[in-house]
Hints:
By secondary structure, this protein is α/β, with parallel strands linked by helices. The protein has a domain at 29-178 and 275-296: Rossmann fold. It has helices at residues 3-26, 42-51, 73-89, 116-132, 148-161, 191-200, 219-230, 235-238, 254-257, 273-296, and strands at 35-36, 54-59, 92-93, 137-142, 165-168. It has a five-stranded parallel β-sheet with strand order 1-3-2-4-5. Helix 5 links the parallel strand 4 and strand 5. Helix 3 packs across helix 10, helix 4 runs parallel beside helix 5 and helix 6 packs across helix 10 (273-296). The structure holds zinc ion. Zinc ion (ZN) binds at residues 65, 73-74, 144, 188, 193.
Amino acid sequence: MDRANQNKKKCLCIIACFILFAGSFIFSNPQEKPLILQEMTWSDVREYVTTNDMVIIPMGSTEQHGPHLPLGTDYYEASEIAKMISARTGVVVAPVLLSGYSVYHSGFPGTLSLKPETMEAVLFETCEMLMMYGFRRFMFFNYHGGNNIVGSNVIHKINHTTEASAVNIGIGATFLNETEEVAPFDYHAGIGETSIMLYLKPELVRMSRVKKPKITLTDKMKEIRKLAEKNPGFDAVLNTLLGVPVETKKGGASHEISNNGIWTFGDPKTATKEMGKKIVTQWVEAAVKFILTWKETKK
Length: 299
Ligand SMILES: [Zn+2]
């Protein structure tokens, strides 16, 4: 290759690099990074509330998630998915609690638990503070079944005693289509949740330690499961027995049901990052659609 040709090539290369560099600024989405309250300054918040009064509050837990997933699994799921929703909508995420109501998992060390009334007080006082600055639309992104009652109570208190509005955009949200069951009884640290963590926090998943659990259900639970097969919705009765403290003598505490803390009849070794991505994406898309619709209404 001669020198003139070499120079021409160099020149074209520089122009191409410049176009790519400039393009990355012109076409970058200004909302592709999440807005996290703890990372903002007070003046950022003052500016934010002049155009937006929405906030997402994640709710998770610090509790056992089998021998292979970290204790903070539910916290990471709630906060990471909430951040993805924030990046797509520009709504602030305010994580305020690391723990949830998890006392029925305390047969496994490391599990932390707060009483529902303690959580309700912390969450409501937090929302009252946010209301002082102009926040009026609260969205709770809960990713731990044990917190359901707490979320409902705080949402009710906000809606019935303040000017603000509060809704649930986490598990049980009205806009979510039932996601298909990946395996029967895949409720905790199983195929679904392991897949989600392989997608969100792969560095914290110890796949070499994962083992199919030995599940022990009481005769009463087995009977209700059979009836629920013919009567969809009847499994609501099963929920009164499962995931309850050992003192209730229902045989529904985590260590009474599972020998290693995993709840599934499937094999968690079959979890994949791709499945995790699919579950998370469905969630994010549905929540983004909901928020963008709510944004259309007057502030
Ligand atoms: Zn979990």
